[in-house]
Design goal:
- The complex is a heterotrimer of chains A (about 120), B (about 120) and C (about 550).
- By secondary structure, chain A is α/β, with parallel strands linked by helices.
- Chain A contains four helices and six strands, in the order E-E-H-E-E-H-E-H-E-H.
- In chain A, strands 1, 2, 3, 4, 5 and 6 form a six-stranded mixed β-sheet that branches.
- The longest helix of chain A has 17 residues.
- Chain A is globular.
- Chain B is α/β, with parallel strands linked by helices and about 120 residues long.
- Chain B has a single domain, classed as Response regulator (Rossmann fold, 3-Layer(aba) Sandwich), CATH 3.40.50.2300.
- The longest helix of chain B has 14 residues.
- Chain B is globular and about 30 Å long.
- Chain C has about 550 residues and is an alpha/beta fold.
- Chain C has three domains: about 140 residues, Four Helix Bundle (Hemerythrin (Met), subunit A); about 130 residues, Response regulator (Rossmann fold, 3-Layer(aba) Sandwich); about 230 residues, Phosphatase 2c, domain 1 (4-Layer Sandwich).
- In chain C, strand 1, helix 6 and strand 2 form a beta-alpha-beta unit.
- In chain C, helix 1 runs antiparallel to helix 4, helix 2 packs antiparallel against helix 3 and helix 11 crosses helix 12.
- Chain C is elongated and about 130 Å long.
- Classes of the chains: A alpha/beta (about 120), B alpha/beta (about 120), C alpha/beta (about 550).
- Chains in contact: A-C, B-C.
- At the A-C interface, helix 2 of A face loops of C.
């Protein structure tokens, strides 16, 4: 699993690639929370290279969404592959995570004042 | 006149303390080891016992325990004479049943006060 | 100790006593002598004579030389004894001094009084000097170390050490030094005794002399390393430096390190410390692994204990459930329970996470579900209540994907709710398969006040329903191929006529076959039910299931 972060102004951009198995889920969660500790104004998770996500990984994202709820931002997902989208769809999590086809669209959605 | 049993194995100390107590008007009997100390306490029934803690044959703690366990000698007050002023020694002495303790070198006035307090207790 | 050899540390102590206590002792001797010569001293001749004797005893002890090591072998104990011995004549000196002072006061023996004053001052000085030279036991070690340059050893770095050396002197030095460092030490003189001792008592380290009568050090080493339960016991070889080849050979045979003779204290501490540290780390690792194992075992037991023992017998409905846990359990469970004569509840869920927290959560979910269902609540309402309960206090964000259906055994209608779980699959009697539409609802336990919807499906006699966990469809085979829903549907249509047990087993077999030896990363769970309809419509093909 590859994890990298960058910034677009106040927005934290997290890129996750590969397989987010339960073995690496804890490390993923720790790093994700560290990014949120910096109090970004928005969070985008770029997942176009993500092949698989275990339930622990979903949990980490749910925790992030809850923190976002308290911190005034939502966690956006960009570029989900169909297998990943299936998982989010079946589990009902698409409702919680705004999702976009690409990173550019995701950033646009956050920056635009229209919610 | 009160009778004190002094149980002390060091000859010099035994002699020195006997003399000093005699001068203060006490009758003094001596024993040179713990076993003898228990025997004499049982047969002579002194009014008070001064027990050195580090004795041969039977050490002071065990001798005291024996005396306190025996109905005949239980009531006799025992003052432990300990070589060091370490807290552990004090606790050990009191734990064995000693009624008071005094560390060497003895401060005679203080010892005498303790002796009188215990003798008056009965 | 070997005859004639004096421990340098004890010699140092004797020197310090001479240096620190000596001067004050001299003043006591002088006062005692002056006393003997004082006017009117004859009246207290006896007592003065004793004072003289005591003074002499004190001087002898102070000038006397190194104290002896006793049976207890420790420097600390030797110092303690020395301190006690020095104080004994002092006690006599003070006592007699005060006695004579009293007599002199009563009988007006003025000449004696002044000298007595000096004597008693000297006694007080010596007592102080003794404390400086030989502090009370708790400070003795620190004071010593201060003089020698090594800080005291941290308690956590101490251990049980066995010494095997045929030289008494070496044994003594090592016992004494290591004992002072705070280690528990045992010493033997030959290899066979070492081996016996190490087999019957736990040690943290063995110091083995290379050359001993009977069994040699390297033979003992080999015997130790051959014993499975002593595998982690570190051994340090002691040898003279000219036996380099043999040392290398021993290291290859499993010795941790070697120590040269004559012993160097700094090296001794460093190498022993390193060995003990390594052993400790290995043990911590093992303990951790064992704890993880036991956690997994407990979690596994909890998981097993909440699974139903068998499908409730019913003339109209047959069923079977199976759950095959992955090594690190994945949190799957299933349940079936009777609600009344004609209604049976079927549930299958997948708890996020693993280990004991997941197992506990799972038990909670299953219990709560049964409880709400037994009140006659519809599946959606059950899920909503369950969700409220779980989402309310959930700092770790655990959740469960859950399918829950109530089968009407008269009509064959299954009313169900689905909280984020894989859609089950219908296997019609004729072999066609249909995916059961999901309700679009969220995983249970994530958000309070989530809505749950209900839906229904109708089972005709002979139709089967398979509820399963993602361990089935996400099973991975060679070249990262994924089992997938399509394959499941295809496999099932070929098993349409099988009993629920055979169906479930069949799915398991196909998945395992697909995995082709790859270890499963998730629990594999499925529940299969078949509606048999009213007794008169039971078909010849369907097997009556004895639950």
């Amino acid at each position: 699993m590859k994890f990298s972060t960058s910034r677009e102004g106040d927005i934290a951009v997290i890129t996750v690639a590969g397989r987010l198995s339960s073995a690496v889920a804890e490390s993923f969660q720790t790093r994700l929370m560290a990014v949120l500790d910096e109090n970004p104004k928005g969070v985008v998770v770029e997942v176009s290279e993500l092949e698989f996500i275990a339930s622990n990984g979903l949990r980490a994202l749910i925790l992030a969404a809850k923190r976002g709820h308290a911190g005034g931002y939502r966690v956006h997902l960009c570029g989900m592959r169909w297998q990943i989208r299936e998982i989010f769809s079946v589990s009902g999590l698409l409702r919680i995570f705004p999702h976009h086809a690409s990173l550019a669209e995701g950033l646009e959605a956050i920056k635009s004042p229209i919610r | 006149m009160s009778r004190i049993l002094l149980v002390e194995d060091n000859e010099m100390n035994r002699d020195m303390l006997s003399r000093r107590l005699l001068r203060k008007g006490y009758e003094v009997a001596v024993a040179t080891d713990g076993g003898e100390g228990v025997a004499m306490a049982t047969s002579e029934r002194p009014d008070l016992i001064l027990m050195d803690m580090s004795l041969p044959v039977l050490n002071g703690w065990d001798a005291t325990r024996r005396l306190k366990a025996d109905a005949a000698t239980r009531h006799i007050p025992v003052i432990a004479l300990t070589a060091h002023a370490m807290a552990a020694d004090r606790e050990q002495a009191l734990g064995a049943g000693c009624d008071d303790y005094e560390t060497k070198p003895i401060e005679l006035p203080r010892l005498l006060e303790k002796i009188e307090t215990l003798l008056r207790r009965d | 100790m070997a005859a004639g050899a004096i421990d340098p540390r004890l010699a140092a102590i004797a020197e310090r006593v001479r240096h620190v206590v000596g001067p004050a002792t001299a003043s006591i001797s002088a006062a005692a002598a002056a006393l003997a010569a004082a006017p009117n001293s004859q009246d207290v001749a006896d007592e003065i004579a004793r004072i003289g004797i005591a003074a002499g005893q004190l001087v002898e002890m102070v000038e006397g030389g190194a104290p002896a090591l006793g049976d207890d072998g420790g420097i600390e104990a030797a110092c303690s004894r020395l301190r006690h011995d020095l104080r004994t004549p002092l006690v006599a000196l003070k006592g007699y001094g005060e006695l004579v002072l009293e007599i002199a006061a009563d009988e007006h023996l003025d000449g004696v009084t002044r000298e007595l004053g000096r004597l008693l001052e000297g006694v007080a000085e010596v007592m102080v000097a003794i404390e400086r030279a030989l502090p009370a036991p708790s400070r003795a070690m620190a004071a010593e170390d201060h003089g020698e340059g090594l800080p005291p050893l941290h308690p956590s770095l101490r251990g049980r050490i066995l010494i095997a050396d045929d030289s008494q002197a070496n044994r003594d030095i090592l016992v004494q030094y290591l004992g002072r460092e705070g280690h528990e030490v045992a010493a033997v003189a030959d290899g066979l005794s070492a081996l016996d001792l190490v087999m019957e008592q736990p040690f943290d380290l063995v110091l083995l002399d290379m050359i001993m009568p009977g069994m040699n050090g390297d033979e003992v080493l080999k015997a130790i390393k051959a014993e499975p339960r002593l595998r982690l016991l570190p051994v340090i070889m002691i040898s003279a430096l000219d036996a380099v080849d043999r040392i290398v050979h021993c290291i290859e045979a499993g010795a941790e390190d070697y120590l040269p003779k004559p012993f160097n204290r700094v090296l001794l501490r460093a190498r022993i410390g390193a060995c003990l540290e390594k052993k400790r780390l290995r043990e911590i690792e093992l303990a951790y692994l064992r704890a993880v194992e036991s956690e997994l075992t407990i979690a596994h037991e909890v998981q097993q204990s909440i699974l139903p023992k068998g499908f409730p017998p019913h003339r109209a409905l047959a069923g079977h459930g199976l759950m095959v846990p992955a090594r690190d359990i994945g949190g799957d469970f299933y349940d079936f329970f009777v609600l009344d004569d004609d209604h049976i509840g079927i549930a299958l869920g997948d708890v996020s996470g693993k280990g004991i927290p997941a197992a506990v959560y799972m038990a909670m979910v299953r219990t709560q579900l049964r409880a709400t269902a037994s009140f006659g609540l519809a599946p959606a309402e059950c899920l909503a209540r369950l969700n409220q309960h779980l989402a309310a206090d959930n700092p770790s964000a655990m959740f469960v994907s859950l399918f829950f259906g109530i089968v009407d055994c008269v009509s064959g209608v299954v009313t169900y709710a689905n909280g984020g779980h894989n859609p089950p699959i219908l296997v019609r009697a004729d072999g066609t398969t249909e995916w059961v539409p999901g309700t679009g609802d969220l995983l249970v336990g994530v958000l309070p006040d989530s809505d749950y919807h209900e839906a229904g499906l109708a089972l005709a006699p002979g139709d089967a329903l398979l509820v399963y966990s993602d361990g089935v469809v996400e099973a991975v085979g060679p070249a990262d191929a994924v089992f997938g829903e399509a394959r499941l549907a295809s496999v099932l249509s070929g098993m349409a006529d099988r009993s629920p047990a055979a169906l479930a087993d069949g799915v398991l077999a196909v998945v395992r076959n697909f995995e082709a030896g790859q270890p499963a990363s998730d629990d594999l769970t499925c529940v299969a039910i078949r509606f048999l309809g009213a007794p008169t419509t039971a078909t010849a093909n369907s097997h009556q299931e004895a639950p």
